[in-house]
Amino acid sequence: MDDACTSSRRRTVVRVLTGLAVPVLTAAVITAGSPGFGQYKVKNGDTLSRIATQYGTTVRNLVALNNLPGNGNTIYAGETLKVPGGKQTTKRSQLGRVTYIVKKGDTISKIAKRFKCSQANLLAANGLRATDHIYAGKPLQVPVKLHPKPKPKPKAPAKKNNSFAGRTYPDHVVAKADQNRAILKSRKLPTRAQMRNLIIATSKHYGVDPELALAVSWQESGWKQRVVSPANAVGAMQVIPSTGRFASSVVGRDLDLLKPRDNVTAGVVLLDRLTSAAELQTAVAGYYQGLGGVKRNGMYPDTKLYVKNILRIKAQLERGWSPLK
């Protein structure tokens, strides 16, 4: 893809944690980072939603700031994330405690959910570890908020969705992206498992390594056809219109990037041409930065991270890893 499109897509490393509902069970480590930012070292049980709350930001901002794929639902313990402000920016709520007598069938997670507190705080308040057992009749000290919930503030007027990862795109590009996003939202589209099978079949047809195509698509969209970036990169392979026209000229027919099969075909054809023209790392960099840009300027720092992530995902897939399980 060219420079304009690829800057908008999400990049990540992929490992164990999926979903955003798992509570934090251990403390995190903060280290010095670039000006205006800190660094957060992910621990077992961490989630983006928890980290975002801790640093007074949103999941979407963390996804953009760290170039995470999809909705950032695959982070792993030991990974270092950028966080705003360089230090924790939110004040901890004042907590009181109530005594609760454990009943038969209770678990730490159930009690924490019932009292709307974190499992980490509940464990800490009672000097327990995550592996400790509780029993009926045991008294527990449960942290609860002392102050009432603040009244919700009036919603601010919606802002234009024309920026992503620190870059702003022309209004006409964003308008077309919004239009394509609305079209895809109204359509019945394949599941991620079905998209995976389509990518494999298309890759074999064009002689492209299926694990490479799968890794690129997972990085770009999480195998989801409904994704459209502000730069109007469309679908599972995150293809922009100019790349779609190029792929159309290669296959000899007009490709509709909104259609799953055509979208995958465009991305796979691009990978075929890139891997035929350059060694693997440069070809992967070309999908992100544009092959001409890589040859002229070398790989940008975010391009190097993109290549590293793609090759890691590819290796995991070759070892039998399935992110959908």
Automatic annotation (TrEMBL):
Signal peptide: none annotated. Residues 143-167 are annotated as: Disordered. CDD domains: LT-like (cd00254), LysM (cd00118). SUPFAM superfamilies: LysM domain (SSF54106), Lysozyme-like (SSF53955). It comes from the Bacteria. Keywords: Membrane, Transmembrane, Transmembrane helix. Residues 146-158 have a biased composition (Basic residues). The chain crosses the membrane at residues 12-33. GO terms for molecular function: lytic endotransglycosylase activity. Residues 38-83, 98-142 form the LysM domain. InterPro entries: LysM, LysM_dom_sf, Lysozyme-like_dom_sf, Transglycosylase_SLT_dom_1. It holds the Pfam family SLT. This is LysM domain-containing protein. It comes from Kribbella antiqua. The lineage of its organism: Bacteria, Bacillati, Actinomycetota, Actinomycetes, Propionibacteriales.
